[in-house]
Amino acid sequence: MKKLAMAVVAAASLAPFQANSANSNIPFGGSVGNTCVITVGPTGVLAASADFTVLGSEEAGGSAGTAQVLATGAGYALSADAPAGFASFPATGNTNVTFEANYSSTGANTIAQTDGGTATALGRGMNTVTVNMSGTKNVVGETFAAGAYTAVVILRCE
User: What pLDDT is recorded for position 58?
Assistant: First the structure.
């Protein structure tokens, strides 16, 4: 009998201990601020017109620059400032040039091609924005000189 009692005690000590279980909710909270974020994508490429009086992204061989624009709330407008001049250029390349920019958007807001100086209201959401620019010689008979040209369009979400 003593051996049986010891066996029962030994078996009971090997059995897993059962604790009372409990659970509770852990709350989480946060907020999203009203903001507009621009993430620049591939850069644009300028190409010359057949008569070399225009350097633009919409000329054959050129391409638009793109950006992702995310607005988390209302009250923002999109616009694109044309450059005042080329950032880099060969001699006389920045003389007698008129600059223009335009943009369009797909995604949360569909915007047809719009003059860069025209602000367009944005609703909440993600947009893919396409930006074009051009520089045009504004004196008859002048053409762009051979060399490398760069320019910057400022995309705004304000």
Answer: 98
pLDDT in tens, 137-156: 999 999 999 999 999 999 99
Q: Per DSSP, what are the bridge partners of residue 79? A: 156
Topology (CATH) of 31-157 = Immunoglobulin-like (2.60.40)
Distance CA 118, CA 67 (A): 18
Residue 105 has pLDDT above 80, yes or no: yes
Q: Are 114 and 77 in contact (CB under 8 A)?
A: no
pTM above 0.85, yes or no: no
CA dist 18 and 41 (Å) reads 59
Cα atoms in the 13 Å half-sphere on the side-chain side of 53: 7
How is the chain split into domains, by residue range? 31-157
Cα→Cα distances 158→69, 78, 97, 104, 122, Å: 11, 7, 28, 16, 10
Does residue 109 contact residue 123 with C-beta atoms inside 8 Å? yes
